[in-house]
Amino acid sequence: MTQVTDATFADEVLANDLPVLVDFTADWCPPCRQIAPVLAAVASEEAHRLKVVALDVDHNPQTQAAYGVLSMPTLMVFRGGQPVKSMVGARAKARLLRELSEVL
Q: Annotated site (Deprotonates C-terminal active site Cys), which positions (predicted)?
């Protein structure tokens, strides 16, 4: 999974041809650690149609504020430079794939 920052967000996420799932995460967040292996598996299995990146909100407050992210983890899907879906909280892989199916 690619790590993005305030400085790289536009290039890595907004300008990407594929839909991009952004994991707004923090080191101090237990649910963030819980969903990390799920996201890594999805990133690997769906690489042909979805890019998965992580953004540490403690080190990148501009992007967090720009998209109104208040809870961690927040999973936000961007397509064509625009957010098209937002989900809050950890979830099982099967549920995440079901929720993503409508935007892929």
A: 23
Q: Residue type at 70?
A: L
| Rounded CA separation 5/10 (Å) | 9
pLDDT in tens, 4-42: 999 999 999 999 999 999 999 999 999 999 999 999 999
Phi-psi region of 39 (alpha: psi -120 to 50; beta: other; left: phi over 0): alpha
Q: Which residues contact 50 (CB under 8 A, 6 or more apart)?
A: 18, 19, 20, 21, 42, 43, 100, 104
Give domain status of residue 82, yes or no: yes
Residue 51 lies in a domain: yes
Q: Enumerate the active-site residues.
A: 29, 32
